[in-house]
Amino acid sequence: MLPFAFVSCEEDDGRAMDRSAPRTELAALREELDYHRHRYFVLDDPEISDAEYDALFDRLSDLESAHPELVTPDSPTQRVGAAPSTQFAQVRHETPMLSLDKCTSESELAAWEQRCRRLLGPDDELCYFCEPKVDGVAVSLLYADGALVRAATRGDGETGEDITANVRTIPDIPLRLPADVPSALEVRGEVYMPITGFHAFNRRALASGERTIVNPRNGAAGSLRQLDPAVTAKRPLAMFCYSIGETPGGWQPRSHAEVMAALADWGLPVNHWGRWQENLKGCTDYVEALLAERDSLNYAIDGAVIKVDDLAHRSRLGQVTRKPRWAIAYKYPSEEASTVLVDVDFQVGRTGAITPVAKLEPVFVGGVTVSNATLHNMDEVSRLDLRIGDTVLIHRAGDVIPQVMKVIESKRPADARAVQMPSECPVCGSAIHKDEGEVVARCSGGLRCRAQRKERLRHFASRQALDIEGLGDKLVDQLLGEDLVGSPADLYRLTIEELAGLERMGVKSAENLLAALEASKHTTFARFIHALGIREVGETTAATLAKRFKRLDALVAADEEVLQEVEDVGPIVATRIVGFFADEANRTLARELHDDIGIYWDVAEEEPQTAPLGGQTWVLTGTLGAMARNEAKAILVELGARVASSVSKNTTVVVAGPGAGSKRTRAEELGIEIVNEADFVNRLTSLGWGGGTDET
Ligand code: AMP
Q: Whose alpha carbon is nearest atom 12 of ligand 1?
């Protein structure tokens, strides 16, 4: 196994490295790069991020430029990708599949343009075509007389692998093109795994205990290199075409834009972010605009590709060491990086959930410095086989919390320590327990736990709950620190003196906060329910509950059966709600907020019940002969009734056909009206339903 710490300019003990031996450093770098290249391209199991790989590569290129006499033909700088695997037949590319030069700043992009201009001459008008640099696998498709006859990977650029059978399973790649395409047509592009497909794959893998995929690129590469095409067929893959190879004797397009239009016309998948640009300013604007959209795309990108549009210009510009001079990749900040797991902290959430959080050696990733990553729960820690001291690969995209993707086992130090879930809450010392069948462990301290109190207050004041302006994180900390509040109800008992006495809080801010607290008393029932922080009851469920129950007493009194009649409330949510109000402290708090503090909401006047069955709840059970159950349900709904699946004291009528069992018995017990089908149809007819009138 190769050591990773290869080219630091200083040895571990601080001695400067022997710079007079570039040959030694070059050899170490090449070995290092070959190792990672193999892991990336052949094993689809990278150990370092692309950015780290690029840094190694750049160092090698710099050294080779300084010592051209030391460049060897087998140096990674002289190759593209990796040698093809021997498991697939080999395919020689008529025109080599190239790599791309890279830049990371506007000035480097401008320097590239200057070089193109210099090489072409002052009279040549330069226009460009910009595209996303999709992070997948470069693939060549060969169409003979319009039929897909061969598909190959890039391999080392000269020779790739024959993956025709696998590529044939990708739904958006046409197996036949229209009759007017050139008789020999090579199309190139990127096969990728859509992000939604990647997540769905990992969800399924997690559920069935299979290996997950580290990132969409690995997903695409691994799927394409399956020996059984039936396996590839089950993987979510797609392609974007972005160039053509030779088209001997036939069509001679003049520009890249023309090529892209033709590819789209022939039904080949092309990326809709491709844009022709008149000048370099257009390209820099494009680079910025695409970056802003990066997180909303359903495919991973690692940059933008800027290509000279005119194909005649391109052939004059040519290529250098397997990279065309006419194109450049503008690389975006890497969303992956490797770093060391220094420790694992355990955070306590609002409902006592204990979340392991990775403390990392700070690393720059996705445009920011990251030193924490969530580990979700201990199952995830075991799945990753994570130990303190491990080097890990982390991923951060957009505003999403950084995730640990995998452990790089080859770098595990001898003294790496297992991650242990504490038996006591790190904040209040109460016992930590885990319910049967649950993944999440919880602190049993309830509101005795300061962390839970804090999270509960933060949640209560949050924008989606009571929306108390000015009651931010810091202030909640201060209030708890000074012992001024314990429960949300205490917030409303704060005095101006208490508040103004807090550090960094003047009289004016104190007055504002009191006004905000006062204003928050007039709310909606949905917000109030949400603010209570019942487990599993988010904003949407709170809104449905509010609509159904309207008043606090009605909600508190509802049993599981009644609750389950509410749309989207299943047995688990119903149990949580009942469990919440069964706890004396919660019940008291809810009543205190409502009755004593005076939090209120407008209860809409009962809706005028113009519909004949408005406000009624019906249950259908047993076999219905004259009409299908769905039809009966639709008629009832049309007449204004609610149709529930179980009988409760709120049920108005039960329609019991032959074979009715427990629901009928329950209705009898509760003294609810039971009708048979004939009575039911009569009742509907008397309400003006014209059932069967169109029959002759
Ligand atoms: P690299 O492998 O980093 O040298 O980058 C070159 C690779 O970028 C190509 O082999 C393609 O796989 C990939 N690529 C992704 N999107 C594009 C695009 N729009 N045009 C050209 N190459 C692309």
A: 138
